Amino acid sequence: MVASKPRIPISSPPVVTWEPLSSDFVLPDDPVENIQQPPLAAALTDALGANQRLQPDMLIGSNFGLVATLDQKSVVKAPDWFYVAQVNPLPEGAIRRSYTPYIEGEPVSVVMEFLSDGDYGELSVRSSPPYGKLYFYEQILQVPTHVTYDPYKLALEVRQLDSSAGGGYQLRSPDSEGRFWIPELGLNLGLWYGERLGSTMYWLRWWDEAGNLLLWSAEQADVERHRAEVLAAKLRELGIEPDA
Questions:
Q1: Number of domains in the chain
Q2: Residue 32 class from Cβ within 10 Å (0-12 exposed, 13-18 middle, 19+ buried)?
Q3: Do residues 51 and 214 lie in contact, with contact meaning Cβ atoms separated by under 8 Å?
Q4: What pTM was computed for the model?
Q5: What range does the domain containing 110 cover?
Q6: Contact status, residue 112 vs residue 84, Cβ threshold 8 Å
Q7: Quick one: which of 96, 107, 170, 178 is 20 to 30 A from 159 by CA?
Q8: Which of 23-37, 91-105, 184-198 is predicted least confidently?
Q9: Do 53 and 138 belong to one domain?
Q10: Which distant-in-sequence residues (6+ apart) come within 8 Å of 243 by Cβ?
């Protein structure tokens, strides 16, 4: 008689609750694995601020902990960039050290991960501790838009939750310009090659619905400087000294 193989137990989904992170919880301090991550994240936020698309009650962060409680244990994942449309104000003098949806404000709308040149742990769907990042964003936080950018392969992918597919992520197709519409921000996201702060590479950038590039603050300053120089030259042609 052949012995039957033992059945592999199927784990049930964790019980999810939303609770404040305890003050003594030690937040992960993982090293940045992608040297391009900090400037990519900063450039995305800079363009939004320079174009008056940031509000005081929004929350945008980079390598900042998003919190959920799974089976009574706090789980924290830190995306490379994320966006929340509205959060509750903090008491005067308080510092936000993490973000728990629903009790601190609205759910997270967009997360981005800039893939490292390694095992692509950012795309892990592990459904048991330690939970994978993609599983956490898709099944626990249920973030509507999930973006990954691989700067080593110049591959930009956008996933969106699809209720008709059981609530899972579905890959989106880019438009004819290779850009993706991000509905939560009302902007297109795509790649742009050029220089910023001494670094020349492919950057993630925003375009509005009409196809206009959202300029960084430094670019806007250059445009205003050029306009001032043109105006000064016209005044001098008329015999007027601009500085007088």
A1: 2
A2: middle
A3: yes
A4: 0.89
A5: 27-213
A6: no
A7: 96
A8: 23-37
A9: yes
A10: none
